[in-house]
Amino acid sequence: MNSPEAIRDFLGSYLRPKFIGQGQDPPTDMSDDHDLLLLGVIDSQDFLNLLLAVEAHFGLQIDFEGLDPEQMTIVGPLCKFVSEQLGKT
Amino acid sequence: MMSLQKGLWSGFTRSAESFPERRAVVVGGKSLLYRELREIATRIAATIQAYPEFSGTPLTAVFAYRSATAFAGILGSLLAGNGYVPLNRTFPVERTQLMFERSECRSIIVDSGSLPQLDDLLGGVREPLLVILPDISDVGSYRELWPRDIFIGQDDLTASSAWREPTVCPDAVAYLLFTSGSTGIPKGVMVAHRNVVSFIEYVAERYQITEQDRLSQMFDMTFDLSVFDMFVAWERGACVCCPSQRTIIKPDKFIQDIELTVWFSVPSTAVFMKQLGLLKPGRFSSLRWSLFCGEPLPVSSAQAWLEAAPNATLENLYGPTELTIACTLYRWDSVRSRGESELGIVPIGCPFPGMNVLVVDDELNEVRPGQEGELLMSGPQMSLGYWKDPERTAASFVVPPGAREVFYRTGDRVRRPLGNGPLVHLGRVDFQVKVLGHRVELGEVEAVVRETSGIDGVVAVGWPATLSGCAGVEVFIEGEAKDLEGLSTAIASKLPDYMAPRRLHFMSELPRNVNYKFDRKALLRMLDV
């Protein structure tokens, strides 16, 4: 349940209303190289909200200490990071 | 003492003389020295001065976001003798169009990142414009598409030697900043040089800013608190450090990498960082000052922040845009402050020197000490009013009965201090609702829910509307629902029936407005659907 794919699915469902709200079509797949900031639907504050939503959804506290800002808004590395964090608990 | 001969730019030009080789700004991963920033800003200013036919409205729009051009553009507008109007490409373009049109600016400075929205902006304007694009050399395509306007690219900027320092007019508008109006039409607040110079000189001295300091720039330029970041730094030769959209994601790393000495943000940032586990004890040892402003600061967030920044003094500032950035402040004291806080919120403290406070009832008569009422303020930081809007200016800038001067109605509810105690913010006047004839302060309901749930992100609204007020209170909580029944029972046990929330709505994320404050109207709309 805490695989990178599960996290990717959650990102997709979380971001869907934001795409629709901005008159954009949600992407059919959240491929690994999508950068959430560059997609233009969320800003940095939204991204922090997203991290909190990931915590709330998976019911676990994630240690964001090791989060690399250069990588972490990109779907593939983000899903991998969260999945690893969830696996530690 | 404040000198009225100073413009908002004066501190910068003085520091550029004294510290030409020091860093003035870090932005986009690069540093600009004072002499470099002065050179770009002066060329922009000289360009605006070279086209006097566009000077009908003494304002220049700066359509730039977290870029060198944003800083140079603001300084360039001021050095040309104009006030600046910040525009923000992360806002909906319709809102930016409305702000630009209402400002009646005839000149605009645009950075490369905002160019994709430029055509939309120009399409809504009827008058010819001076459009300065300092980031690009080739402006041929724009000239072809918009023959009505004058386009100036990087290579066309006037030489800095042609710049003439403008005469300082203390009453001239230094910046025009749009705030959301209750009617949905943004209001342009006119802040004069004398208003903002008074503020900058006081806080630069209070915080003993020196050329060794590094200040955060967390606020977008469209939020007036950004004026603190830039101009307090430049007043004393310090460096303002502007994180990119990407760097903001990790404020902890930003503070450590840059070794910030002065932090200034909305309390929400501290709330987020606490929730994400980023406020590790002792982590921000470089900070001398931790300053918060813009919304209520929860006691729990202040304490967690102080543990992370043990060498810093924490102050909570308060002030609407109309009173120029901040006009009261409260210094956190580990012994005294918990007792002085109400509803789990840090007090807003005492007025800045020269600012006068009145706490009034509905008829604008002063209430007795210890009673609550609306906060009215007057003094050197009181702005000129709303741009081209005498009606709304007259409604908010009033002479109360028995007073001899104009006061600004903040719309904030406070308790009038007993003795020398601090002002305590109790919520917005318009957040007070009547439920079945009872007066209910929504902030009080929020405080009980915050305390009971342990979650800081809580908003209470009165809903549905009735002829006499509203039928009940609904509460939104940012987080995952856990033991809903137990939580509801615990909250209800602490509140009278008419105040107890009818429903608790858990959301992974509460809607926020452009300044990251909770969007209560959006929540009401959700209930209406």
Task: Give me the secondary-structure topology.
The complex is a heterodimer of chains A (89) and B (529).
Chain A: H1 4-21, H2 44-58, H3 75-88
Helix pairs in contact in A: 1-3
Chain B: H1 10-18, E1 23-27, E2 30-33, H2 34-50, E3 59-63, H3 68-79, E4 83-87, H4 93-103, E5 107-110, H5 118-123, E6 130-133, H6 140-145, E7 150-153, E8 173-179, E9 187-192, H7 193-206, E10 214-216, H8 225-235, E11 239-242, H9 251-258, E12 262-265, H10 267-275, E13 289-292, H11 299-308, E14 313-318, E15 328-331, H12 337-340, E16 350-351, E17 356-360, E18 372-378, E19 385-386, H13 390-396, E20 397-398, E21 407-415, E22 424-428, E23 432-435, E24 438-441, H14 442-453, E25 458-462, E26 465-466, E27 469-470, E28 473-478, H15 484-492, E29 503-507, H16 520-528
Parallel strand pairs in B: 1-11, 3-4, 3-5, 5-6, 6-7, 10-11, 12-13, 13-14, 28-29
Antiparallel strand pairs in B: 1-2, 8-9, 9-19, 14-15, 15-16, 17-18, 18-21, 20-21, 21-22, 23-24, 25-28, 26-27
Tell me about this structure.
The complex is a heterodimer of chains A (89) and B (529). Chain A is mostly helical and 89 residues long. Chain A is built from three helices and no strands. Chain A has a single domain, classed as Orthogonal Bundle (Non-ribosomal Peptide Synthetase Peptidyl Carrier Protein, Chain A). Helix content of chain A is 53%, strand content 0%. In chain A, 28% of the residues are buried. Chain B has a five-stranded parallel β-sheet, with helices on both faces. Chain B has a five-stranded mixed β-sheet with strand order 12-13-14-15-16. In chain B, 29% of the residues lie in helices and 24% in strands. Chain B is globular and about 70 Å long. Chain B is built from 16 helices and 29 strands. Chain B starts with 9 loop residues before the first helix and ends with a helix. The model of chain B has no long low-confidence stretch (mean pLDDT 92). The A-B interface holds A 14, 37, 43-53, 55-57, 59, 61-65, 67, 69-70, 72-73 and B 90, 245-250, 253, 272, 275-278, 280, 478-480, 508-509, 512, 516.
